[in-house]
Amino acid sequence: MNALRWLLKWLAKPIIQEGVMLVSLVVLFADYNWYHELQERGYWVAWLRLSLRVFYAYLATWLVVIVNRRWFKLMIYTLATLLFVVESFLQLRFHMDVGPAMFRLIAETNPQESREFITNFVMARPTIKVFALAAVVVGEIAIAERYRHTLAQWIQRIRLQPVLLSVMAVMVGCGAWASLSFVDLFSYHTTERANRWCDLDPVAPNDVVSSLIFALHDFDISNQETSRSMQSNILASQERATLLHPSDSVTLVVVIGESFNKHHSSLYGYPLPTNPRLALERDRGNLMVFSDVVSPFNKTSTVLKEVMTTSNLADGITWDQSPMFSTIFKRAGYQVWLWDNQRHDSPLATFAFTLNAFLYNPQIVPLAYDKLNEQSFALDSELVQDFEQHAQDHLTGRNLVMLHLMGQHFDARERYPHKRLDFNHFTANEVPQQAIALSEDARTHIANYDTATAFNDLVMKMIFDLFSNHNAVVVYFADHGEEVYDWRDFISRTDNMRINAQEAKYQYEVPFVIWCSDRYISQHPQEVAQMQQATSQPLMLDQVCQLLFHLGGIQSPYYQAQHDPLSATFKPSKRILNYVVDYDSLMSQRDSLRIK
Question: Is 444 buried (19+), middle (13-18) or exposed (0-12) by CB count in 10 A?
Fold first, then answer.
């Protein structure tokens, strides 16, 4: 019993001796989203996150008690204040938390850029609010520290100490339990898994300390992945890559759409005419529509890392173990273009950080591309026009052109020009019959999404027209789908690893088409016949590179005929979603239940 009493007294020391510091650190370990989380996720999650901050503060004050040196206490206060200032600055100026992108920016920023940042942001008038807030908080802490003994005596006099000790003990205990969640985080060794933890775990980063822990771990993982990817690309740039038909100057165009629910496309049976131009190209015989294609994930950053490389998830080969297919095309003598309309969209967000750190790594860029766009645009039509302006008279020889669109990215209403009338604009009253039970607001969202889909149809026609006089093939697919009130009152995508059949249908099934110019059709009748025969093959987007190697006539160790849908030796692979869900088994179970 004496040992237990001694242990409890020892554990209570930080609260009794440094109670003011403990409370002050809870304040400095700011969580600007706490009230939002209280409203969105309830009292329990808000309590856990507050308790986690108390636990961090308890650990810091416990160290102060153990070291028992004034300089050490001042150092802890200084570090906490610095974190508070940085978090407040990021929140008030950029509406973001401390994150891995911040460390990437620090690592890649040169002295000139640092001076410009300080001039434009740190010394700007709005930042004065941050310093003023910090001054007020630090001033209040200094006053509390000055009178902490008086405050402690007052608390003892009114007999509040037992109550406060009990409350703090419970919060420290809950915080210690909540901190065990970080064990899961540190067990993940891919940015995709770490980011899912960030999205789904109840105690995932919101306060500045949790954000810092996550940022450091994610930054380290990202560096390791990018380093492996860089080595793969260096190796591929030195590997043999030859052409089956050296005299065939073909232009391959890969267009990657965004958030395209194929069940809102008239090519796939949707009742509204959302793809009239693509339908016309299909009827002319220039467009082949593939009916059974799925994406392995429902997040752009995760999908593109697999799609842009020679990865094959069915064989356990991930993006960081594989070179970019564009590196192999460039090695074979192709001129490679990448025009990305999402490069500058939310560049500081975690998902964008992980993707851009890979796609635009300074050591990978010269191996994988010849030309890159310098700016992004509000509309995809402007991106196409910008590419046309830069590519004019330069699309000679063999070319690989990659266009990454904004597509139907949320908010769909922002993805099309409202005053332009040369494409279909839909209204809430025109949405399909099954949406009648939904609210006016929901039907308006559907109409906006369908209008964005119709504008995407116009953008694709612009691309076809751009290459109509070339020996060209255009391969178009979306990175993932999007629920748009299709079977429930919900729009967007879920973060679940394990999904049901309806989520798989609307979020993971994607449109996939191949368009050929008249010139290509006349010169490559065999390849066109192969495309027509392959339209019903079950595919996953990580097999796109194999199809492109076939169309580009590239012989390389990275070409795997069994994963090429145009090859006579093609063998359908297991299509695993989110690393855990067998898509075909899931849909087969759904169909068998319907039969019963």
Answer: middle
Contacts 24+ apart (CB under 8 A), 421-424: 422/458, 423/451, 423/454, 423/455, 423/457, 423/458, 424/272, 424/273, 424/274, 424/276, 424/450, 424/451, 424/454
Q: What is the mean pLDDT of each run of 10 residues along the chain (596 residues)?
A: 64 78 85 67 80 90 90 92 84 70 58 53 66 83 80 66 77 88 85 76 75 85 87 92 89 97 97 97 98 95 93 90 96 96 67 72 94 94 97 91 95 92 89 77 94 97 97 97 92 85 96 98 96 97 97 95 96 92 91 55
State residue 512 phi and psi, 5-degree precision: -150, 120
SS3 string of 212-251? HHHHHHHHHHHHHHHHHHHHHHHHHCCCCCEECCCCCCCE
Q: Which amino acid is at 57?
A: A
Q: Give Cα 71 to chain centroid, integer Å.
A: 43
Reduce the DSSP state of residue 370 to 3 states and report it.
coil
Residue 392 DSSP one-character state: T
The Cα-based distances of 281 to 261, 284, 513 in angstroms read 20, 5, 11
C-alpha–C-alpha distance, residues 292 and 521, integer Å: 24
Domain boundaries, the chain: 2-223, 248-595
CATH ID of 248-595, from 1.10.260.40, 3.40.50.2300, 3.40.50.300, 3.40.720.10: 3.40.720.10
Distance of alpha carbon 453 from alpha carbon 476, whole angstroms: 14
Dist CA 325 CA 427 (whole Å):
41
Beta strands 251-257 and 399-404: pairing type?
Answer: parallel
pTM over 0.90: no
Q: Where do runs of H (alpha helix) occur along 19-110? A: 19-28, 34-67, 70-94, 100-108
Radius of gyration for the alpha carbons in the chain, expressed in angstroms and rounded: 28
Which residue type, as a one-letter code, is found at position 19? G
